[in-house]
Amino acid sequence: MGGYDLRHGEDAPQQAAETLSSGSETGRIICLDIPDDYDFMQPELVRLLKVKMARYFPDVPAPD
Q: How far apart are CA 4 and CA 51, in angstroms?
């Protein structure tokens, strides 16, 4: 399983540096601690993302 494509991480260091150096209050990286054991858009993954993100993004709809 796991749908991680190596291309996903190619720009990550540059994007992280830009985010952290932006000086914005929202310029932070949040680790949701979700293992790469899911397929793309797998319902369990979507549900888990919504649960984990609710702490940081209260406007995200609660999972069904």
A: 21
For 20-52, the pLDDT digits (tens) are 776 666 667 788 899 999 999 999 999 999 888
Residue 53 confidence (pLDDT) above 70: yes
- Whole-model pTM: value is 0.56
- Can you give the residue ranges of every domain in the chain? 6-54
* Residues 60 and 52 sit within 8 Å (Cβ to Cβ): no
Counting Cα atoms < 13 Å in the Cβ hemisphere of 55 gives: 7
Tokens matching residue 8: 């996903």
* Residue where the block lists tokens 């494509």: 5
